[in-house]
Design brief:
Elements lengths: L6 E2 L2 E2 L8 H4 L13 H15 L19 E9 L5 E2 L2 E2 H14 L4 E12 L4 H18 L2 E10 L7 E11 L15 E4 L5 H8 L18 H8 L7 E3 L5 H13 L2 E5 L7 H10 L13 E4 L4 H9 L8 E7 L6 E4 L5 E3 L13
Parallel strand pairs: 6-7, 11-14
Antiparallel strand pairs: 1-2, 3-8, 4-5, 6-8, 9-12, 9-13, 10-12, 11-13, 14-15
InterPro entries: HypE, PurM-like_C_dom, PurM-like_C_sf, PurM-like_N, PurM-like_N_sf
Family: Belongs to the HypE family.
Protein name: Hydrogenase expression/formation protein HypE
Length: 359
């Protein structure tokens, strides 16, 4: 039995499908789609697999048996509950792929495989599920990863809203690469791949009817190719981390504690787009605490910084890479921020999430 899936950007043409009646005749998710029977199989075969495209493997067993590549394996898992599901520059589907690929990349790993688990709320439009699945498949294709196994559950409409996704990723770390959060050393230089705050503000711009007067798009992207360019310089990269929830502030504090070093950042060196700064001013937010989904922080030896920055700038996702600070023996495990007036203040980690359900 075949399904014709006429998919164009924002919607799916259910009238053109020739799949079994339970899927075509229910424009929204119903509990039966999570029951493990014919409706579940229909959902996978005629929505998810066509949407995933060439990124999906045909086998649908409960476990995937995969070849083991040379090198050490890296494993990461993450769950995505962003609200709303669709935001300028992306949606929860591509975010789920990019977020897990980036977690692997921050260990220096080349991503290979992803699992995908969907939790669908009863009543969610099938067109929305299709848009999310299509975006996820396209993001996997762009990242060069295979979708090798997965799961779908349906909850009643009082227990969730829209689509939640868990992705688990497997990658391989090349020999000689040792990137860990506890490897920062005094004298190391802190690098940032580009402007911050775009993802968090993009999500906020379509939440609760907030209008910032300008369009801000999420920076969601897979960073593994940028990381590969950095590794190819031969530099002994000590630390990589993507500043997602809690932004630069939370991430850099975590790294200072893990390595036991002090870190000093230079306020004016940190690129904050004007529209992000304006939106944060309106909402009373600190741009350094706003989530990113396509940026990375790197800590490298001082004598390697120029070569690594140059390599980053040659890649489109690192075109605005810059030095934003350094590690020091002073004030161990504390991050300070040197202001434009020459004063220094402590940059604390946020106590909680400024922007809940941002990823």
């Amino acid at each position: 039995m075949s399904g014709g899936t006429a998919m164009s950007g924002n919607d799916l043409d259910f009238e053109g499908w020739t799949c079994p009646l339970p899927l075509r005749d229910t424009p929204t998710v119903v509990l039966g789609h999570g029951g493990g029977g014919a409706m579940s199989a229909d959902l996978v075969e005629h929505l998810f697999l066509p949407a995933f495209g060439s990124a999906a493997r045909a086998e649908l067993g409960d476990a995937a048996v995969l070849p083991r590549p040379g090198g050490r394996l890296a494993l990461s898992t993450d769950t995505f509950v962003v609200k709303p599901m669709f935001f300028p520059g992306g949606n929860i589907g591509d975010l789920a792929v990019n977020g897990t690929v980036n977690d692997l990349a921050m260990a220096g790993a080349h991503p290979l495989y992803l699992s995908t688990a969907f939790v669908l709320a009863e009543g969610t439009p099938m067109t929305d599920v299709g848009r999310v699945a299509t975006a996820l498949g396209k993001a996997a294709e762009r990242a060069g990863v295979q979708l090798v196994t997965g799961d779908t559950k349906v909850v009643d409409h009082d227990s969730g809203d829209g689509v939640y996704i868990n992705t688990t990723g497997v990658g391989v770390v090349p020999d000689g690469v040792d990137i860990r959060p506890d490897r920062a050393r005094p004298g190391d230089v802190v690098l940032l791949s580009g402007p911050i705050g775009l993802h968090g503000i993009a999500v906020m711009s379509v939440r609760d009817g907030i209008d910032f007067g300008t369009r801000v798009e999420s920076d969601t992207a897979s960073l593994h190719e940028l990381v590969a360019e950095m590794i190819a310089t031969g530099a002994d990269i000590h630390v990589l981390r993507d500043p997602t929830r809690g932004g630069v502030s939370a991430t850099i504090n975590e790294l200072a504690r893990a390595s036991g070093v002090g870190i000093e950042l230079i306020d004016r060196a940190i690129p904050v787009p004007g529209e992000v700064r304006d939106a944060c001013g309106l909402l009373g937010l600190d741009p350094l605490q706003v989530a990113n989904e396509g940026k990375l922080l790197a800590i490298v030896p001082a004598d390697a910084a120029d070569a690594v920055v140059a390599a980053m700038r040659r890649h489109r996702l690192g075109a605005q890479a810059c030095v934003i600070g350094h590690c020091t023996v002073e004030h161990p495990q504390v991050v300070t921020l040197r202001t434009g007036l020459g004063a220094t203040r402590v940059l604390d980690a946020p106590i909680g999430e400024q922007l809940p359900r941002i990823c």
